[in-house]
Amino acid sequence: MDRQKQDELKQAAAKQAAGLVEDGMILGVGTGSTVKFFIDELGRRKEEEGLALKAVVTTSSRSRKQLEGLGFTVSELADIDQADLTVDGADRVDKQLNGIKGGGAALTLEKNVAVNSKKNVWIVDESKVVDHLSGFPLPVEVLPISCEQNKRRFEAEGLNPQFRLNADGSRLKTHYGNYILDLHVDSVPVPSGLADYLDHTVGVVEHGLFLDICDEVIIARDNGEIETRCR
Ligand SMILES: O=C[C@H](O)[C@H](O)[C@H](O)COP(=O)(O)O
After folding, report:
1. Which of 41, 110, 206, 216 is catalytic?
2. ipTM here
3. Based on the structure, what is the number of domains in the chain?
4. I need a surface site. Which of 90, 139, 149, 207 has the fewest CB within 10 A?
5. Residues with Cβ within 8 Å of residue 55, at least 6 apart in sequence
6. Domain range for residue 201?
């Protein structure tokens, strides 16, 4: 699929999700190229319909900048109780609405916003929908102090870790100053088993397996249809 077509699909899914946003909501806004279209649409609704949110929290400085540029005031997660609705993208989503996230390295804040949200909606184009989680490296955010030990441990487990790099070859640092180890596994046959292992590995800050978190996924299909799947 070419880039323009994929952008059209992302935009279609984003527009549908923006229709779920209501006046007075505390809204969680994710990160990524699909969410960028969602924020565009929020801006349009604010301008043309006077959309008035109670509060907005977001998951990256990129989304924050875009929201603020459109006149939204962005709160910190610690300043709210919970979001009414959070809309985010995903890198892969399976039939149970479990997913892989973190392609943009925003997984830690994304998961924290998501678990503190009454409802989570993901917006994706069809290419990201899979039967079983596969086809995308699994991001794991690790503390710099023990990242080499973590890498060796993951290698021993056959998880093929690779540090995520910047264009100049240096290690990418997350918003929190940590590194990302991308696990290049063909597929994740038992997501809950791997999530449990990562949850209990010292030095792992967070990982990109988002299990039992998404309530609804909005899929923009190649043929122009929009499909909504609910948990
Ligand atoms: O860290 C980034 C996030 O998990 C994104 O939501 C995810 O990578 C999807 O991004 P995009 O919409 O650009 O494909």
Report:
1. 110
2. 0.97
3. 2
4. 149
5. 26, 27, 73, 75, 79, 80
6. 138-206
